[in-house]
Write a structure and sequence with these properties.
- There is one protein chain.
- This protein is an alpha/beta fold and 275 residues long.
- The chain has 2 domains: 74 residues, Alpha-Beta Plaits, CATH 3.30.70; 155 residues, Rossmann fold (3-Layer(aba) Sandwich).
- Helices cover 27% and strands 33% of the residues.
- Helix 3 packs parallel to helix 4 and helix 6 runs parallel beside helix 7.
- The longest helix is centred in the middle third of the chain and has 13 residues.
- The termini are far apart.
């Protein structure tokens, strides 16, 4: 596979790098490596187009200085890239997320993730906040959907927290394969991993639905999530900014969901709704 690599220099780094990664992900870039100067982003050449950066709003912002160059890449050793750049994290002193080559931490929950090109290592604000939600909410005996599962980290933690039936779904083939690998790596026995989108939810129902996806997909699919949410169920959403809250909340309210909690980290937010 031939990739095109974009190499961005960003000043100041925060929160620009996180915003840039999110916006690049929306237009088709599928892997990222944060660097001391900014971020390297990669996209399959067959998915690339000349105007691919036209909709990247942060590049037009006066708040940040962002420069870049790009080039064709014949092959990338993704494991080597991640091993060089992926550092472990600990969330709320309860959950460690690390790669196989890191030493084990003395935390209640220890998750081993080899992320490769999948989204969901816990480093991004949205994943970090969703991990916090999974840590603070009740999952014992619950049925759970992890929609847009990326690495499968949220489903894995939900099983560790006592969930007994879990579906993890992602439209991206690489994420699907990576989630299967990580589910096996963490000795999970209650997680079913599927490749697909919200159309797979017909005739399925859950006590808790977790969706860490971009704003536009959420607005389109919330009605589908609600149809699959059991009575007294919980919907956890992230993948968008503070200014997106009114539109997300309005769509949820249309389907009789009530916003009960908001988390925020560097302009990103995560919302908890109940029915």
């Amino acid at each position: 596979m031939i990739y095109i690599g974009y190499y961005f220099k960003v000043q100041p780094l925060e929160p620009a790098v996180e915003i840039l990664i999110a916006e690049l992900g929306y237009v088709g870039f599928d892997s990222f490596v944060e660097t001391e100067e900014g971020v390297s982003a990669y996209i399959l050449k067959e998915e690339w187009r000349e105007n691919i950066l036209d909709d990247i709003q942060i590049l037009k912002s006066d708040e940040f200085e962002i420069s870049y160059h790009f080039e064709d890449i014949e092959q990338v050793n993704w494991n080597e890239e991640w091993e060089r750049n992926f550092s472990p994290i600990i969330v709320d002193d309860l959950c460690a997320i690390r790669a196989p080559f890191h030493e084990k931490f003395d935390t209640k929950y220890d998750i081993v993730i080899e992320p490769k090109m999948s989204f969901g290592t816990g480093h991004h604000e949205t994943t970090h906040m969703m991990i916090q939600y999974v840590l603070k909410n009740e999952f014992e005996g619950k049925s759970v959907l992890d929609m847009g599962c990326g690495t499968g980290v949220l489903a894995i933690l939900a099983e560790m927290r006592g969930a007994t039936h879990l579906d993890a779904i992602d439209i991206d083939n690489w994420c699907y394969i990576n989630s299967l690998e990580n589910v096996e790596r963490n000795n999970c026995s209650h997680i079913n991993v599927y490749e697909g989108d919200a159309n797979m939810l017909a005739n399925r129902s859950y006590d808790v639905i977790i969706a860490n996806i971009n704003r536009n997909i959420l607005l389109n699919d919330i009605k589908t999530y609600v149809a699959s949410l059991n009575e007294n169920g919980t919907l956890l959403l992230s993948g968008f900014y503070r200014e997106d809250i009114p539109s997300i909340e309005a769509e949820c309210n249309k389907h009789m969901l009530k916003l009960v909690e908001t988390l925020e980290k560097n302009h990103w937010v995560a919302l908890k709704f109940i029915n």
